[in-house]
Amino acid sequence: MAYCILDISSNLQVFPYIVEWNVMNLIKTENVTQSNICGMLTNKKKVCGKKAKYHKEITTVTGTTTHIYSCEIHAKSHQTLSMPNKGFSLTALKKKSLQDVRVLQQKYLGENENIKKKADIVDNLYRHFEKHSWDPIKENKVNAGHVDLITIGRNLFIELSQNDIMKTVTHVLIENQISPIANRMKTIQGMLAQHFISIGKEHIEFVSSGNKLKEFETISEAKTEYQKHKKDGVFFCTKLLQDHKYLLWFQYFIDFKAKKDDLADSFLQGIWWWRKIQKNNKLM
């Protein structure tokens, strides 16, 4: 389930600031624990708390072994660990020429040419990259239709309850599920609304899925309306991020693989609502 938290408190005339933007995994069969959420600190010196996508086993100064976990954004900005690079896998390194691996050797290891054999250089490089790169957290893929609603409800509660930023929102927009074949999504919509009702949020609104593209002209030539809306959503989301100089979030969106269309929808719904209250010049 995709969500986007926007901050518009400073000035209704300034384009919204993205506080948090992600996709919750509601179909995992194991509960989210403290160990697999991002433990990095935000600019406000608080633990991030987002779902971790990377981890690393490290040895502390006392000699003990521990794991650190990070979300996508904090992993990219880490000072000592690099993002995983398929070009530095053992297979990829073995395919490189001797000249190429020597260039990498000089760049990353700073060693002279005393090591002559390509196999030895490759081995040293691989061990270096393995030590200094994040390890992706691999999840077993689960068919969403095979996960019961009780499990989904519990996962939803855990995701929302452990996210401190989610507790600070003042206005909640939930996309209305009206399709006759969307019974499961309608149930989840109710679960989501009930959660925010239970924690005292006064402004909760069900909004039409058509709102997010109201101010844009369709550009997709996909066969079905559903496919058109999905492709248009990704296109216009990308354009808004570029036009309004969301440099970090633009790259974050480009790199996002699964559920990119849902991620775009959540952002565009928020922008639609902001523009609506901007016209009324008041916060409803």
Automatic annotation (TrEMBL):
<dbReference type="InterPro" id="IPR036397">
    <property type="entry name" value="RNaseH_sf"/>
</dbReference>
<dbReference type="GO" id="GO:0003676">
    <property type="term" value="F:nucleic acid binding"/>
</dbReference>
<protein>
    <submittedName>
        <fullName>Uncharacterized protein</fullName>
    </submittedName>
</protein>
<dbReference type="InterPro" id="IPR012337">
    <property type="entry name" value="RNaseH-like_sf"/>
</dbReference>
